[in-house]
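Section 3.1: Structural characterization of target chains.
Under the original work plan, the team committed to producing a structural model for every single-chain target entering the pipeline before any wet-lab resources were allocated. The record below documents one such target. The sequence was received from the expression subgroup and is listed exactly as submitted; it comprises 301 residues.
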Amino acid sequence: MTALRTFEAAARLLSFKDAAEELCVSATTVSNQIRQLEKDWGCKLFHRHTRAVSLTERGKGLSLVLTRAFEDIRVEVERQVGAPKRTVSIAVGPIFGARWLGPRLARLGKAHPKIELVIHHGSRITDARQMQTDLAVDWGFGTWQDLVARPVMQVRYSPIISSELARETGPLTHPSQLAGLTIIHQHDHSEWKNWFALAGCGDLKIDSEFTVFDSNMVQRAVKDGQGVALGVFPFMDDDVDSGQLIKPFDIDLMPGRAFHLLERPDARKNAAIRTVCEWIEGEAQISMTQGQTLAEDGQAG
């Protein structure tokens, strides 16, 4: 059982070193136990590369079975023993975590005091092997291998500028005026290209622009008056309502991708995980309803 637990951790993390840290043993111990398993069973479980490992086909099959088995054991122990406080881990990106989840954590704690939510920095993932937490929130089209993906939030894109920059430039009455400002892209140029096309000026020539990958840096650059970026709504509603940022046009681009809540197929058998999932979905529904109301009020005004 010890060797199987070691293999499960190494397979899930795809790292002997990380597995050793999780299990509080040495990396040599992890390597030796896995080699002994391979010797006992007469098959190779990992491909060893210079600075990484990957699973063989047999290793992948065994990993899936063991991960499910250990999760079932954990769920049953929690159900029978009834631990006074249950921990649920979730991975989220910077904008979803800081702008949406963070301000709501107190409500979760008040509603479910016996659940401790542990929040990890989330990176983009494609399948279940890359998810190292109980839950994750990721941005995409809804296709994650071996994971259940439930859409929780549809966002809208619209330009935002700082109030100081708006005073310097004067009133912005037409999207074509944005060509005179520095355009800040996030990741690539596609989102701005689609927004300009929606606004009826797809052939607009941009004189000054730069690209930033981190969403927090994009927001900081806009607030510092360095240029104009596409704000992600409803995350930016509070900044616009307070007057710190200005949304000059009521033209919202609806991207094909959305934020999804990711979980393993049997995750909701765990009562604590199910509670957190339902809480996130409920809060997201409230948030989207409020955001839609604000957008309709803005268009009406």
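The chain is about 45% helix and 20% strand.
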